[in-house]
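Dear Dr. H.,

I hope your travels went smoothly. While you were away I took the liberty of generating a structure for the chain from your last submission, since the lab meeting agenda had it listed for discussion. I wanted you to have the full record in hand beforehand rather than looking at slides cold. The sequence, exactly as received, is reproduced here:
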Amino acid sequence: MFNTKIDVAKIMEKIKADVAAKHSGSVISQGDRMPTYSNADHSADFDAVGIKNELERIDSYITNTNADSENYYRIGDRIRISDKAKGLVRKIKIFFKRFFRKATRFIAEDQIVVNTNTINSIRALLEYNRELLPVIDLVFYLHAQNTLLNDQVRRLSEELENIKRDTGWHSEALEKFKLDMGAHGEVFDKFKLDHSEALEKLKLDMGAHSEALEKFKLDMGSYVESQNNNIAGVSDKLQAFLDEQNKPILSDEMYEEFLDKYRGSREEISRRLNVYFDEFNNFNIDPTRPNVIVDIGCGRGEMLECAYKRGISCVGVDINEACCNYCKDRGFNAVHSDAVEYLSGLEGNSVDAVTAFQLIEHISTDMLNNIIKEALRVLKPGGMLIMETPYSRNVEVGTYSFYIDPTHRRPVNGDFVKFLCEERGYSSVSFFMWKEKEIEAWLNSVYGAETTKALESPTFRTVLEEAKKALFASPDYAIIAVK
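The corresponding predicted structure, in token form, is as follows:
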């Protein structure tokens, strides 16, 4: 059976209980609140959305209850009479259907009217509560803001009291400062009176010193100007002296003639250079592949000619223009240029070998160092730098033949050149003397012709070895540096 009555009192009690539960503990006190207020704090005190949802739930409950009453009211209409029922059975069913319809309407009709009015009243109340929700929300918000303002006013009052207290202290300090300044003013006035005469005397002395300083500046200006003129004269003389010292002793044409007379014949020089090609297997160059040798200080071009005959490309570089023209006339590639400048213009790892025969005794140590550095840069991995120069340990070279050429600066010690190459980073550095084997063969032939037992003496052998170093040393040595 359906309950056709709606207990209004019970529903109202439930609404009151739900509202009370929602607002329990929501009273805002100054002691419980933080100094600031946000939407999050407001939501924690007043759940407007929750109350709204609760009102909707109550509205739904009332609607469902009213629907149940309507269903009960129409219970007689739900009795169906089948078309198959005939005669007395059909009449009985029609009777009961009419009976239940009238009975339920008699029982529930008034109650339904009451329920409908009650429901409409409750719904009006619910709608009113919905309209009150923003107002209640605003009341709680304003209460929180009031609490916040009260806290700020309290803090400002405390700060104001602190400022008043500090202002009083600063006033006392200012008064004390004024008194102290008055005392200092009196002391300063007394100091001015006591030292006024000394101050005037000091001013007079400073004036005299200023005049003396101006006179000194004028005297020094004249002195500096005279010294500058003297220095300029000395500088001109020194430059003229340096120009004279750096002036070539022989012209390019005369030096070419000098080489023809004292360097040795082209055939002899070529024979010596071929020793290097044979000893070092053409400098490990494959003639069938692209290759190039740079011969700096190429002179008459003997190195260019030896390389050409072996199928190896070679470029000569010389600062003597006459020598370069001589090489070009013979069909060789020669460049008139400074050695370091030429090497600096080449790409790295682009050259198979760099040679310098009878060159380094003509140049400065700084230029030698730069040639070693640039050669290491342009050489391919495994490429060779070969530098030949007179060997001053040979008695004839060290005492006579080295000084025939006026362009020779000084003998170059081989150990020093080897050190420079090692410091620059070459993988191996060694000595080579092209005439050492010829000298050894000649000495052995001389020993072989002698039959005296004195040759077997250890002392004689020691003396002979030292004599070989001085009397029969190779006239030239070469440094072989491999990248």
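Two observations you may find useful: The chain is about 65% helix and 10% strand. Residues 1-5, 25-45 have pLDDT under 50 and may be disordered.

With kind regards,
E. W.
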